[in-house]
Structure formats: structure tokens, C-alpha cells
TrEMBL record:
Species the sequence originates in: Caproiciproducens galactitolivorans
Subcellular location: Cell envelope
GO CC annotation terms, alphabetical: cell envelope
Protein name: D-ribose-binding periplasmic protein
Chief location category: other
GO function term, MF aspect, one: carbohydrate binding
Similarity comment: Belongs to the bacterial solute-binding protein 2 family.
Length: 339
């Protein structure tokens, strides 16, 4: 597959992701992994021929977080490898709905991009902004119900989170109690992860005490965790929508002297969270590959702009990180970014 060959040449086996996720969306799908076959670098270079007149628009949820920094890095590397121009944007935060909406409207009305990639903050709202779009539209990280969508590139969030829930359930045992901290309430990615966590926990006999939302930020997660601890004298596990919130929840529990009695599950597998796992604070994380998401988004947007066939669902694999593999995984993350 051409996309795999390009990605394999880029990554060279830097990241190895072993847990295949299943797509919950309709239509054909393919799994994109960094563990692809070895390919000559010249194949990547040849893929960039005759692409200099192609401009790809990419609008992410934000550029102000470690996770989205990885996505942006993948976007920029694909821009370089494929010889295209990328207009990369993102609002200040994951609750900057109006700012992202304005970016989408401005990009579409300008008509300067040959394809547009969006990570929608509010999928339903974003779809209403696409009615006048004439260029191919692709979604990355978070899907949207857009009838002219070319492709979705991202994680099967529900399946991946279920694996995380099962892992924590086995650690703490049947009959124990857990709380969930979601990101932005109503966000499709967040709700898929919360559903997956629930399924993994409840199927293994863990009681879910409650769920609260922290707008995907560590500071808000600290407040949410403090509320949980005031309400529930026994909390055995905390499962969060992302790693920032997991680290915030752990910090709150540590300040209250209760962290050593809890397990903390994050999602994303960012370098700071992997270091937290090594340090014995965060317990585990479902690691996505945001770099690959960004790279694959541009690769497939270029294919769409050229009128080539694009798979409807491109699922990026995930990997569960805990103390047994955190050091190795962190080394690979650092190598990927040239550290």
C-alpha cells in the first residue's frame, strides 16, 4: 500500500505499535502502523514529484498541547517529504469553538487549498460550516458525520479505551471502585473513550462511582479529582480522557495522601506521561500515534486532491504503556523527534 510505504520510509521502525484497533465507523477501513515493511528512501522522494502546486489546509483542535504538537510534527514532516504546501492552523485551546469555526469558514471561502483536513472541536457544528466546501474534506483524530467526507484518520477510541479499562480492572480486581474524568462533554472522541472505559471496567466487575468532565486540562482535572475525593472515601482507580488529566488527578490525590491507594490511567502516550509512568505516578496510558495521524492525514489529503482513491477509515494503531515498556517507548518517542 503506497501510504504504508511512505510511512515506513519516514519512520524506519522508530515506533512499534502492536495493538490493532477496530473501526466503529461504516465503510472500508485500513490499519496504518509504523511497523511497516522496509522501503527505499527514494520511493518517498519520488512520491513528492509534481506536488509543488498542491496546497493542503490542516485545522487542528489546538496547537497548544504536547499531543497536538506531535500531530503538527507529523503534518510538517509529510509536507516536507511530499513536496506540498501545508497551511497549518489551530485555535488557542480545545474549547475555542468560535475560533476554530472562523478558521474553517475563512479557509473555505478563500478557496486556496486543494484539500482540507480538520480535527473538529464540535463535529456537528463543523459540518454546518462545510456546506459550501468544494474541496475534499478529511477528518483527523475526531470523526464527523459529513456526507461528502473523504476519510477519517485516527484511533478507534472506544476499542482502545476498552483495553485500558480491562487492564485497570485486572490490576485492582473485581468489586473495586473507579471514577472517570472526561475531556470536553459531548465531544465524540471523549464520549467514545468513556464508553470504552465503562465496558472494560464493568465487564470485569468494577463499580463506576461517577464521571465528571475537565475540559481536557490538568488544572480542571485537579478540581474534579478533589471533588471526587470529598464525595467518595474509597476510589481504587481513576481513568482519564487524556494524560494531562491523569497527571492532574494523580497530583491532587498525592496532595491528599491518597495516591498510593489508586491506579491512574491516561490516554495518548505523550512523553511527559510516559516519564510519569517511569516515575511511578501515572499507572498506564493508552498510547496513540498522533505523529502518524498528522502524517497520514496529509498523505491522504494529497491523494484526494489528485483524484486518487482514499480509504474511508484509516485506523492508526495504539499501544498500552506501563512500567514494563515505558522506558523503551520513551526512547522511541525521543528518537522520533530527533532528541
Amino acid at each position: 500500500m503506497k501510504t504504508k510505504r511512505i510511512l515506513a520510509a519516514l519512520m524506519g521502525g522508530i515506533m512499534v505499535l502492536s495493538m490493532a484497533a477496530c473501526s466503529g465507523s461504516s465503510g472500508s477501513s485500513t490499519a496504518a502502523s509504523t511497523a511497516g515493511e522496509s522501503t527505499a528512501a527514494k520511493e518517498t522522494a519520488s512520491a513528492g514529484k509534481d506536488n509543488s502546486n498542491i496546497t493542503i489546509g490542516v485545522i487542528l483542535k489546538t496547537l497548544s498541547s504536547e499531543y497536538w504538537g506531535y500531530v503538527a510534527a507529523g503534518v510538517k514532516q509529510a509536507e516536507k517529504d511530499l513536496g506540498v504546501k501545508v497551511e497549518l492552523q489551530g485555535p488557542p485551546s480545545e474549547t475555542s469553538y468560535n475560533e476554530q469555526s472562523n478558521m474553517i469558514e475563512t479557509t473555505i471561502s478563500a478557496g486556496k487549498v486543494n484539500a482540507l483536513v480538520i480535527a473538529p472541536l464540535q463535529p456537528d457544528m463543523v459540518v454546518t460550516k462545510l456546506q459550501d466546501a468544494t474541496m475534499p474534506i478529511l477528518f483527523v483524530d475526531t470523526d464527523a458525520n459529513y456526507d461528502k467526507k473523504v476519510a477519517f484518520i485516527g484511533t478507534s477510541n472506544e476499542a482502545a479505551a476498552k483495553t485500558g479499562g480491562e487492564y485497570i480492572a485486572k490490576l485492582i480486581g473485581k468489586g473495586k471502585k473507579a471514577v472517570l474524568i472526561g475531556g470536553v462533554q459531548g465531544d465524540t472522541t471523549c464520549e467514545a473513550r468513556m464508553k470504552g472505559y465503562r465496558e472494560g471496567l464493568e465487564a470485569n466487575g468494577v463499580e463506576i462511582l461517577g464521571i465528571q468532565y475537565a475540559n481536557a486540562t490538568a488544572d480542571k482535572a485537579v478540581q474534579v479529582m478533589e471533588n471526587f475525593m470529598q464525595t467518595y472515601p474509597q476510589i481504587d482507580a481513576v481513568l482519564c480522557n487524556n494524560d494531562d488529566m491523569a497527571m492532574g488527578a494523580q497530583r491532587a490525590a498525592a496532595q491528599a495522601g491518597r495516591a498510593d491507594k489508586m491506579k491512574f490511567m491516561g490516554f495518548d502516550g505523550n512523553a511527559t506521561s510516559v516519564q510519569s509512568i517511569i516515575d511511578g505516578k501515572e499507572t498506564a496510558s493508552v498510547a496513540q500515534s498522533p505523529y502518524d495521524m498528522g502524517y497520514q492525514a496529509v498523505v491522504n489529503a494529497v491523494k484526494a486532491a489528485k483524484g486518487e482513491t482514499v480509504e474511508k477509515n484509516i485506523i492508526i494503531e495504539t499501544k498500552l504503556i506501563d512500567s514494563s515498556n515505558a522506558k523503551e517507548y520513551l526512547d522511541k518517542l525521543n528518537k522520533m523527534l530527533g532528541k
